[in-house]
Design a protein that fits this description.
5-stranded mixed beta sheet, alpha/beta, TIM Barrel, globular, 8-stranded mixed beta barrel, about 25% helix, about 475 residues, 10 helices
């Protein structure tokens, strides 16, 4: 048996072990030095990238960067959350441009968008559209800081030939980061960019009795002509509001004039602030500022109606969606609508309100006759399939002088002339905007005092000077009496 097997190392074994140990120690030292050098260099590089803004400085920012992507359109780059879909409107012209969902839209909204009949509210969303030559030459209008929620802004990027339309609900910083701007300007700028008031096409409010429809996006002229053979002769148009969800590329003074010439009756509708307990994710009324907010909404609605050629004497309906009735919420809604009605009356317009039978309508009925400033017309939202304006929640003597519309069926498709539109259906027996009999003319009107019958009617003629909204309403002289 050898000495190694006996467990006793030889002198040669000892020497070899010593040499091996020195080699390993030296190699480890070299490796440690190289690793440390690499780490130091890497840390220096990362610090430099953070300093110049290439890399985020904290974990939250790193996660944001990792969860975002770059979108490029006509040379302009924006960075948005990777979860946001991007729609190329040039390739998909029927895409519905909706501001109630996170998305980026590239191009001009199509004339024949396939939109749902109903969409309300706004969230963080961006539309990049090619800029018209006239708009590129127009100077940007100044505007105050944006409100806390439910806002929109338009930015002109002349160097890229783009008009940016951005909306947000509670996070304007998301839009600012996407566009690379320090701060956004509010929708007041958009108001200052409204076209000058058009020559009035619509006459003073007249009662129309028959069927009407509404859809989130205004149908194109071609779609409306195709629907000329439908049973509908009334159509709602969404003219603005903090919670307007769908883009309205078709809604112009020329569109309004053409529809009125074709004997359509228009229901101008404004999607304003909603109850603090609204069923939608919408910009809400501030209970402490509700009357002022209602007045501001009405002033904006009037400006938009005038820009479309819908003049004084016409109705404008505020769209108040369903909400949970609480004392605080009901008080806020009523205060907002009081400011809405008072301002419309001051500008010579009729006040209308769209409301659900289990919320807004109940609050309005509860305030009726109490000295509360009531709207002139109500638009009852009750999908019961009944083509009538009678409703068990509204006593017959309240808004009973041809002052009601009824949305009796919700979203569904109907097709006429080969054109399909998703609509809500309505039975109308109330104020709409119709066609002037001749340029500059105002029809003879009659103020009907509720409860007095025809013997208490006061005949008047002319423009807004004959307007007597409280109590009562105006009716076009000779209007056909509606069926029961």
């Amino acid at each position: 048996m050898s000495r190694r097997l006996c467990g006793r190392p030889t002198d040669a074994d000892v020497s070899i072990a010593r040499i091996r140990g020195k080699f390993l120690a030296s190699a480890t030292s070299v490796l440690r030095y190289d690793a440390a050098s690499v780490v130091v260099r890497l840390l220096r590089t990362v610090a430099l990238l953070v300093l110049v803004g290439v890399l985020p400085a904290n974990r939250a920012a790193a996660r944001t960067l990792a969860a975002s992507r770059t979108v490029t359109y006509r040379g302009f780059r924006l960075r948005v959350p990777s979860s946001w879909p991007v729609y190329d409107l040039g390739r998909r012209p029927t895409t519905c441009v909706r501001f109630d969902r996170h998305a980026v839209y590239l191009g001009r909204p199509g004339a024949d968008q396939r939109c749902p009949s109903h969409a309300v509210g706004r969230t963080e969303s961006i539309l990049l559209s090619p800029l018209a030559a006239a708009s590129a030459r127009a100077p940007a209008a100044p505007a105050p800081a944006p409100p806390a929620s439910g806002a929109a802004a338009q930015l002109v990027l002349a160097s890229h030939g783009l008009l940016v339309t951005a909306t947000w609900l509670r996070d304007p910083r998301a839009i600012e980061r996407a566009l690379g701007v320090r701060s956004l300007r509010a929708t007041a700028a958009a108001r200052s960019r409204l076209p000058a008031p058009s020559a009035a096409s619509a006459r003073a409010a007249g009662v129309f009795t028959g069927l009407g429809f509404d859809s989130c996006a205004t149908p194109s002229g071609g779609q409306m002509r195709a629907w000329g053979g439908s049973p509908y002769r009334g159509v709602a148009i969404y003219i603005g509001g903090a919670n307007l969800a769908c883009a309205q590329p078709n809604l112009t003074p020329a569109w309004v004039d053409a529809r009125l010439t074709a004997d359509w009756h228009l229901i101008p509708t404004y999607v304003g602030l909603q109850s603090p307990t609204s069923s939608c994710a919408c910009a809400a009324i501030d209970p402490g500022a509700a009357p002022q907010q209602g007045a501001t909404a009405a002033a904006d609605a009037v400006a938009r109606a005038r820009a479309l050629g819908i003049g004084p004497g016409s109705p404008i309906y505020d769209d108040m969606e369903a909400y949970a009735r609480t004392q605080r919420a009901s008080a806020a809604v009523l205060a907002f609508l009081r400011g809405w009605t008072a301002t419309l009356h001051g500008d010579g317009y009729l006040s209308g309100v769209y409301a659900n039978t289990n919320s807004g309508l109940l609050d309005l009925v509860g305030a009726f006759g109490s000295g509360y400033l009531e709207p002139d017309d109500i638009w009852i939202a009750a999908w019961n399939g009944r083509r009538t304006t009678s409703d068990p929640e509204v006593p017959a003597g309240e808004w009973g002088a041809h002052q009601r519309l009824h949305q009796y069926e919700g979203a569904h498709d109907e097709t006429y002339g080969g054109v399909t539109i998703n609509i809500d259906s309505n039975y109308l027996n109330g104020a709409t905007a119709g066609k002037l009999s001749r340029p500059g003319a105002a029809p003879a009107v009659r103020t009907v005092i509720p409860g007095r019958g025809s013997g208490g009617s006061i005949a008047s003629a002319g423009g807004s000077g004959g307007y007597s909204p409280v109590p009562g309403r105006r009716r076009a002289a000779g209007a056909k009496p509606p069926a029961a």
